[in-house]
Input
Amino acid sequence: MKKVLWMITSIIGLLIVLFCLVPTGKVSAAATTVASGTCGESVSWSLNSDGLLNISGSGEMADYTINDLPPWNEHSSTIKKAVIANGITSIGSSSFWKCSVLESISIPQSVTVIGRNAFYTCSSLKSVSLPKDLITLGDHAFTECAKLTSVSIPSGVKQLKESTFSSCTALVTVNLSEGLEQIGTTAFYNCSSLKRIDIPSTVYYIGTSAFNSCSNLEPVNLSEGLKQIGPNAFCNCTSLKSVTFPSTLREISNSAFYNCSSLEGELIIPEVLNIASYAFYNCFF
Output
Protein backbone atom coordinates (compact mmCIF):
# COMPACT_ATOMS: atom_id res chain seq x y z
CA MET A 1 0.00 0.00 0.00
CA LYS A 2 2.80 2.40 0.89
CA LYS A 3 4.51 1.61 -2.38
CA VAL A 4 1.34 2.44 -4.33
CA LEU A 5 0.92 5.77 -2.49
CA TRP A 6 4.58 6.59 -3.14
CA MET A 7 4.13 5.92 -6.87
CA ILE A 8 0.95 8.04 -7.03
CA THR A 9 2.69 10.92 -5.20
CA SER A 10 5.69 10.71 -7.54
CA ILE A 11 3.46 10.80 -10.63
CA ILE A 12 1.52 13.81 -9.32
CA GLY A 13 4.81 15.60 -8.57
CA LEU A 14 6.11 14.88 -12.06
CA LEU A 15 2.89 16.19 -13.61
CA ILE A 16 3.18 19.43 -11.61
CA VAL A 17 6.76 19.95 -12.81
CA LEU A 18 5.78 19.31 -16.42
CA PHE A 19 2.82 21.70 -16.11
CA CYS A 20 5.13 24.45 -14.82
CA LEU A 21 7.37 24.00 -17.82
CA VAL A 22 4.53 24.52 -20.30
CA PRO A 23 4.26 28.19 -21.41
CA THR A 24 1.01 29.73 -20.18
CA GLY A 25 1.25 32.99 -22.14
CA LYS A 26 2.92 34.62 -25.07
CA VAL A 27 6.70 34.52 -25.19
CA SER A 28 8.36 37.82 -26.13
CA ALA A 29 10.13 37.48 -29.42
CA ALA A 30 13.76 38.52 -29.60
CA ALA A 31 14.34 41.94 -31.12
CA THR A 32 15.05 41.83 -34.81
CA THR A 33 16.98 44.23 -37.02
CA VAL A 34 14.67 46.64 -38.80
CA ALA A 35 17.26 48.57 -40.81
CA SER A 36 21.02 49.08 -40.97
CA GLY A 37 23.74 50.79 -42.96
CA THR A 38 26.73 53.10 -42.74
CA CYS A 39 26.96 56.65 -41.39
CA GLY A 40 30.62 57.48 -41.77
CA GLU A 41 33.80 56.12 -43.30
CA SER A 42 34.24 53.57 -40.52
CA VAL A 43 30.91 53.91 -38.75
CA SER A 44 27.81 51.75 -39.09
CA TRP A 45 24.33 51.74 -37.60
CA SER A 46 21.50 49.33 -36.92
CA LEU A 47 17.98 49.78 -35.59
CA ASN A 48 16.06 46.94 -33.98
CA SER A 49 12.38 46.29 -33.44
CA ASP A 50 12.58 47.47 -29.81
CA GLY A 51 13.49 50.98 -30.97
CA LEU A 52 17.18 50.69 -30.08
CA LEU A 53 19.59 52.46 -32.43
CA ASN A 54 23.17 51.24 -32.20
CA ILE A 55 26.00 53.23 -33.75
CA SER A 56 29.36 51.48 -33.81
CA GLY A 57 32.82 51.67 -35.35
CA SER A 58 35.48 54.34 -35.04
CA GLY A 59 36.10 57.92 -36.06
CA GLU A 60 33.64 60.60 -37.12
CA MET A 61 29.99 60.14 -37.90
CA ALA A 62 28.81 61.74 -41.12
CA ASP A 63 27.22 65.19 -40.98
CA TYR A 64 23.69 65.67 -42.22
CA THR A 65 21.38 68.60 -42.87
CA ILE A 66 17.65 69.17 -42.45
CA ASN A 67 17.35 68.63 -46.20
CA ASP A 68 19.53 65.53 -46.20
CA LEU A 69 18.74 63.68 -42.97
CA PRO A 70 20.43 60.48 -41.74
CA PRO A 71 19.13 57.18 -43.14
CA TRP A 72 17.45 56.17 -39.86
CA ASN A 73 15.35 59.34 -39.80
CA GLU A 74 12.52 57.62 -41.67
CA HIS A 75 12.17 55.51 -38.51
CA SER A 76 12.49 58.49 -36.14
CA SER A 77 9.04 57.95 -34.65
CA THR A 78 10.16 54.54 -33.29
CA ILE A 79 13.66 55.32 -31.96
CA LYS A 80 13.45 55.27 -28.16
CA LYS A 81 17.08 54.73 -27.21
CA ALA A 82 20.42 55.32 -28.90
CA VAL A 83 23.77 53.83 -27.93
CA ILE A 84 26.95 55.20 -29.47
CA ALA A 85 29.94 52.89 -29.12
CA ASN A 86 33.27 53.95 -27.67
CA GLY A 87 35.60 54.86 -30.50
CA ILE A 88 33.16 57.21 -32.22
CA THR A 89 34.65 60.73 -32.05
CA SER A 90 31.78 62.90 -33.26
CA ILE A 91 28.01 63.02 -33.41
CA GLY A 92 27.16 64.37 -36.84
CA SER A 93 25.04 67.43 -37.51
CA SER A 94 21.27 66.75 -37.52
CA SER A 95 21.89 63.13 -36.47
CA PHE A 96 18.80 62.93 -34.25
CA TRP A 97 16.78 65.76 -35.79
CA LYS A 98 13.22 65.61 -34.38
CA CYS A 99 13.56 62.11 -32.95
CA SER A 100 10.60 62.99 -30.76
CA VAL A 101 10.32 59.69 -28.83
CA LEU A 102 14.04 59.36 -28.08
CA GLU A 103 14.24 59.06 -24.29
CA SER A 104 17.88 58.23 -23.66
CA ILE A 105 21.22 58.59 -25.39
CA SER A 106 24.50 56.97 -24.38
CA ILE A 107 27.46 59.10 -25.47
CA PRO A 108 30.95 57.60 -24.99
CA GLN A 109 33.93 59.48 -23.61
CA SER A 110 35.59 59.27 -27.03
CA VAL A 111 33.19 61.90 -28.47
CA THR A 112 34.75 65.37 -28.70
CA VAL A 113 32.31 67.01 -31.13
CA ILE A 114 28.51 67.24 -31.13
CA GLY A 115 27.35 68.83 -34.37
CA ARG A 116 24.74 71.51 -35.03
CA ASN A 117 21.10 70.46 -34.67
CA ALA A 118 22.31 67.08 -33.40
CA PHE A 119 19.40 66.62 -30.96
CA TYR A 120 17.10 69.34 -32.25
CA THR A 121 13.57 68.86 -30.87
CA CYS A 122 14.25 65.54 -29.17
CA SER A 123 11.26 66.42 -27.03
CA SER A 124 11.26 63.20 -24.95
CA LEU A 125 14.97 63.27 -24.03
CA LYS A 126 15.15 63.52 -20.24
CA SER A 127 18.88 63.49 -19.51
CA VAL A 128 22.25 63.64 -21.19
CA SER A 129 25.76 63.10 -19.88
CA LEU A 130 28.28 65.02 -21.94
CA PRO A 131 31.75 63.41 -22.19
CA LYS A 132 34.51 65.09 -20.18
CA ASP A 133 36.73 65.63 -23.24
CA LEU A 134 34.02 67.32 -25.30
CA ILE A 135 35.35 70.38 -27.17
CA THR A 136 32.59 71.48 -29.54
CA LEU A 137 28.85 71.83 -29.01
CA GLY A 138 27.21 72.96 -32.23
CA ASP A 139 24.53 75.60 -32.50
CA HIS A 140 20.98 74.38 -31.80
CA ALA A 141 22.47 71.09 -30.54
CA PHE A 142 19.74 70.59 -27.91
CA THR A 143 17.15 73.18 -28.94
CA GLU A 144 13.60 72.33 -27.78
CA CYS A 145 14.57 69.27 -25.76
CA ALA A 146 11.53 70.04 -23.65
CA LYS A 147 12.01 67.30 -21.01
CA LEU A 148 15.73 67.81 -20.39
CA THR A 149 16.11 68.78 -16.71
CA SER A 150 19.85 69.26 -16.13
CA VAL A 151 23.13 69.58 -17.98
CA SER A 152 26.80 70.00 -17.09
CA ILE A 153 29.12 71.62 -19.60
CA PRO A 154 32.67 70.11 -19.62
CA SER A 155 35.67 72.41 -19.18
CA GLY A 156 36.95 71.82 -22.73
CA VAL A 157 33.97 73.64 -24.26
CA LYS A 158 35.10 77.23 -24.78
CA GLN A 159 31.95 78.54 -26.43
CA LEU A 160 28.26 77.82 -26.17
CA LYS A 161 26.99 78.60 -29.64
CA GLU A 162 23.69 79.99 -30.86
CA SER A 163 20.60 78.44 -29.26
CA THR A 164 22.51 75.46 -27.89
CA PHE A 165 19.83 74.85 -25.23
CA SER A 166 17.13 77.32 -26.23
CA SER A 167 13.54 76.45 -25.27
CA CYS A 168 14.58 73.57 -23.03
CA THR A 169 11.62 74.51 -20.89
CA ALA A 170 12.14 71.84 -18.19
CA LEU A 171 15.82 72.67 -17.69
CA VAL A 172 16.29 73.48 -13.99
CA THR A 173 20.00 73.02 -13.39
CA VAL A 174 22.94 74.15 -15.55
CA ASN A 175 26.54 73.68 -14.44
CA LEU A 176 29.06 75.75 -16.36
CA SER A 177 32.72 74.79 -15.93
CA GLU A 178 35.76 77.00 -15.61
CA GLY A 179 37.22 77.14 -19.10
CA LEU A 180 34.07 78.39 -20.80
CA GLU A 181 34.72 81.79 -22.39
CA GLN A 182 31.61 82.82 -24.33
CA ILE A 183 27.90 82.20 -23.90
CA GLY A 184 26.44 82.70 -27.35
CA THR A 185 23.30 84.25 -28.77
CA THR A 186 20.09 82.73 -27.32
CA ALA A 187 22.12 79.89 -25.77
CA PHE A 188 19.53 79.45 -22.97
CA TYR A 189 16.69 81.50 -24.43
CA ASN A 190 13.29 80.60 -22.96
CA CYS A 191 14.64 78.06 -20.47
CA SER A 192 11.69 79.01 -18.33
CA SER A 193 12.38 76.53 -15.48
CA LEU A 194 16.02 77.54 -14.95
CA LYS A 195 16.37 78.77 -11.37
CA ARG A 196 19.96 79.98 -11.03
CA ILE A 197 23.11 80.46 -13.03
CA ASP A 198 26.71 80.80 -11.88
CA ILE A 199 28.94 82.36 -14.53
CA PRO A 200 32.55 81.07 -14.31
CA SER A 201 35.43 83.53 -14.03
CA THR A 202 36.70 82.49 -17.47
CA VAL A 203 33.58 83.85 -19.22
CA TYR A 204 34.20 87.30 -20.68
CA TYR A 205 31.14 87.65 -22.89
CA ILE A 206 27.44 86.87 -22.48
CA GLY A 207 25.76 87.10 -25.87
CA THR A 208 22.55 88.56 -27.22
CA SER A 209 19.45 87.13 -25.51
CA ALA A 210 21.55 84.41 -23.91
CA PHE A 211 19.12 84.11 -20.97
CA ASN A 212 16.20 86.03 -22.43
CA SER A 213 12.82 84.90 -21.02
CA CYS A 214 14.30 82.67 -18.32
CA SER A 215 11.34 83.71 -16.24
CA ASN A 216 12.15 81.66 -13.10
CA LEU A 217 15.79 82.70 -12.91
CA GLU A 218 16.43 84.32 -9.51
CA PRO A 219 20.11 84.48 -8.59
CA VAL A 220 22.64 85.31 -11.28
CA ASN A 221 26.24 85.21 -10.11
CA LEU A 222 28.56 87.14 -12.39
CA SER A 223 32.25 86.48 -11.73
CA GLU A 224 35.27 88.74 -12.03
CA GLY A 225 36.54 88.38 -15.58
CA LEU A 226 33.26 89.23 -17.32
CA LYS A 227 33.67 92.17 -19.71
CA GLN A 228 30.45 92.50 -21.70
CA ILE A 229 26.77 91.65 -21.30
CA GLY A 230 25.14 91.62 -24.72
CA PRO A 231 21.80 93.06 -25.89
CA ASN A 232 18.70 91.54 -24.23
CA ALA A 233 20.94 89.06 -22.40
CA PHE A 234 18.64 88.87 -19.35
CA CYS A 235 15.57 90.50 -20.89
CA ASN A 236 12.25 89.30 -19.40
CA CYS A 237 13.90 87.50 -16.51
CA THR A 238 10.94 88.57 -14.41
CA SER A 239 11.95 86.66 -11.23
CA LEU A 240 15.50 88.05 -11.12
CA LYS A 241 15.85 89.86 -7.80
CA SER A 242 19.43 91.02 -7.62
CA VAL A 243 22.63 91.22 -9.61
CA THR A 244 26.15 92.25 -8.63
CA PHE A 245 28.42 93.47 -11.38
CA PRO A 246 32.13 92.53 -11.34
CA SER A 247 34.75 95.27 -11.49
CA THR A 248 36.00 93.88 -14.83
CA LEU A 249 32.68 94.62 -16.60
CA ARG A 250 32.99 97.29 -19.29
CA GLU A 251 29.65 97.24 -21.09
CA ILE A 252 26.00 96.51 -20.44
CA SER A 253 24.38 96.53 -23.88
CA ASN A 254 20.96 97.83 -24.82
CA SER A 255 17.96 96.19 -23.13
CA ALA A 256 20.26 93.77 -21.29
CA PHE A 257 17.96 93.68 -18.24
CA TYR A 258 14.81 94.94 -19.96
CA ASN A 259 11.65 94.09 -17.99
CA CYS A 260 13.45 92.46 -15.07
CA SER A 261 10.59 93.72 -12.97
CA SER A 262 11.58 91.97 -9.72
CA LEU A 263 15.04 93.56 -9.46
CA GLU A 264 15.38 95.18 -6.05
CA GLY A 265 17.93 96.83 -3.82
CA GLU A 266 20.81 99.14 -4.67
CA LEU A 267 22.49 98.80 -8.03
CA ILE A 268 26.27 99.11 -7.73
CA ILE A 269 27.87 100.14 -11.02
CA PRO A 270 31.62 99.79 -11.68
CA GLU A 271 33.38 103.10 -12.34
CA VAL A 272 34.33 102.49 -15.97
CA LEU A 273 31.17 101.15 -17.54
CA ASN A 274 29.18 101.88 -20.66
CA ILE A 275 25.44 101.40 -20.07
CA ALA A 276 23.44 101.39 -23.31
CA SER A 277 19.88 102.57 -23.79
CA TYR A 278 17.02 100.70 -22.15
CA ALA A 279 19.49 98.49 -20.29
CA PHE A 280 17.26 98.54 -17.20
CA TYR A 281 13.95 99.58 -18.72
CA ASN A 282 10.91 98.61 -16.64
CA CYS A 283 13.02 97.60 -13.66
CA PHE A 284 11.54 99.03 -10.47
CA PHE A 285 14.46 98.89 -8.04
